[in-house]
Recover the amino acids of this structure.
């Protein structure tokens, strides 16, 4: 395996990182919205967001990507592969993150909301200043765990034509007939982006734990 | 000692007026026909066995609990179910909780500055000046930069009192403020409350601290099973309780102490 092949793997790695970022950002923004709807106390919104979560947690990511890209094309809505993948990952990640954050919001003691209400803080301030900072801390291990999972899940984007890291590894492996070496390198590359994220997560956890001690 | 002129009428000059308030949790009736008028500067102590509805009563005043029947007025504002009146009432009414409920991710100073800045629109500098002044008043200014978990229970509760006072409330509600404290810390919190009373703050305190009731209350109200059973000035309440349930309750708690 020469440097050309290795460069090809690095190009795949670039796509993997970009796809992950799309999933993080889309999932983060919409996941927060899902979590807030889910804890809104307004019955139809809570029911709606619960169904949303059930739907996208209960079906495989592979199928979701497939439906968004090929399924919508069948009914005449031809999406660019990037758009399709962005939508697919956003739906998937927002359902999971929404549920993780819903749990964390509910894990913040009720007295915090009551104190904030008694101080006449309105909903936005109650969430932004009081509840979410505490909920984020509670959710960190699960959030980081899911994001790491999502990075590895981006390999499924190969189905709509992305030559990301796993797919690149596949191609090189077929050319060189050295699957063990190639996938060994692919594994190391995945590890090199996932591991720092885990480390950063525990660093954040420690820092936030100190802040509230 | 002030004698309440008309205890059970929702007088218009009353700071707080509750008239025929009733509350259910499902089938369980938590409050029955509550009538209570609290005048400006009056100090009320609410006592009664656990589950008698004392906390529920004061939590209705700032709408932490809703009620189904009757009327509550705070300073002229009739408390409805709409955000506008709830907000107006909460800006006038401070509350201190049994478990302090300080915001753990903020320093003592930030705890005190948040609400004035966010809900009264006070500038940061003014909020800080007020916070420091009131933290000084509850004798805890030197802890201003610490986080709540670094303080003792008594110190946390004094911060909670200062935090509520930063909103410049007209009424203070205390929901068993010393029940979660170690015995040696009860006094520092009670002393803070006494000094607040001496400055003329209108207060409603749910507490079993009968020494406090004797010393500062204008009226002691005894509740049982969601209803007001008896109310009287403290000397009368303690020396000559009229109702059997009051006598029984006093026997139990005074014996205990």
């Amino acid at each position: 395996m020469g440097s050309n092949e290795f460069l090809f793997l690095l190009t795949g790695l670039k796509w993997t990182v970009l796809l992950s970022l799309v999933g993080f950002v889309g999932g983060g923004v919409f996941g927060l919205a899902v979590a807030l709807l889910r804890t809104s106390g307004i019955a139809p919104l809570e029911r709606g967001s619960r169904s949303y979560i059930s739907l996208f947690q209960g079906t495989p990511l592979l199928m979701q990507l497939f439906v968004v890209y090929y399924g919508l094309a069948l009914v005449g809505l031809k999406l660019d592969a990037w758009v399709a993948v962005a939508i697919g990952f956003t739906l998937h990640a927002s359902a999971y993150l929404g549920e993780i954050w819903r749990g964390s919001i509910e894990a913040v003691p009720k007295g915090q909301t009551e104190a904030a209400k008694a101080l006449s803080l309105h909903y936005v301030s109650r969430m932004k200043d009081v509840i979410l900072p505490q909920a984020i801390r509670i959710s960190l291990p699960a959030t980081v765990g899911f994001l790491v999972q999502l990075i590895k899940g981006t390999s499924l984007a190969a189905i709509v034509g992305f030559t990301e890291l796993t797919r690149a590894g596949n191609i090189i492996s077929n050319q060189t007939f050295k699957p063990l070496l190639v996938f060994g390198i692919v594994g190391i590359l995945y590890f090199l982006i996932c591991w720092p994220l885990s480390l950063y997560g525990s660093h954040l956890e420690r820092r936030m734990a100190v802040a509230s001690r | 000692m002030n004698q309440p002129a008309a205890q059970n009428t929702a007088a218009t000059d009353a700071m707080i007026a509750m008239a025929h308030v009733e509350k259910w949790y499902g089938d369980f009736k938590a409050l029955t026909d509550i009538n209570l008028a609290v005048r400006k500067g009056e100090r009320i102590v609410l006592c009664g066995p656990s589950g008698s509805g004392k906390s529920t009563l004061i939590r209705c005043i700032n709408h932490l609990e809703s009620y189904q029947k009757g009327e509550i007025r705070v300073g002229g504002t009739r408390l409805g179910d709409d955000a506008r009146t709830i907000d107006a009432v909460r800006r006038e009414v401070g509350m201190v909780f049994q478990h302090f409920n300080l915001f753990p991710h903020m320093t003592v100073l930030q705890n005190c500055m948040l609400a004035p800045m966010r809900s009264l629109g006070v500038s940061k500098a003014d909020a800080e000046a007020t916070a420091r002044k009131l933290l000084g008043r509850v004798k805890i200014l030197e802890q201003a930069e610490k986080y709540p978990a670094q303080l003792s229970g008594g110190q946390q509760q004094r911060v909670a009192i200062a935090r509520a006072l930063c909103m410049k409330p007209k009424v203070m509600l205390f929901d068993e403020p010393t029940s979660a404290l170690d015995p040696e810390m009860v006094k520092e919190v009670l002393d803070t409350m006494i000094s607040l009373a001496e400055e003329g703050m209108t207060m409603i305190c749910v507490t079993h601290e009968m020494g406090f009731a004797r010393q500062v209350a204008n009226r002691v109200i005894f509740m049982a099973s969601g209803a007001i059973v008896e109310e009287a000035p403290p000397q009368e309440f303690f020396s000559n309780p009229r109702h059997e349930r009051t006598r029984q309750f006093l026997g139990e708690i005074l014996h205990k102490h």
Summary: The longest strand of chain B covers residues 28-38. The interface with chain A takes residues 62-64, 87, 90-91, 93-95, 97, 99, 101-105, 114-115, 118-119, 147, 149-150, 160, 163-164, 167 of chain B (CB under 8 Å). Chain B has a mean pLDDT of 91. The radius of gyration of chain B is 18 Å.
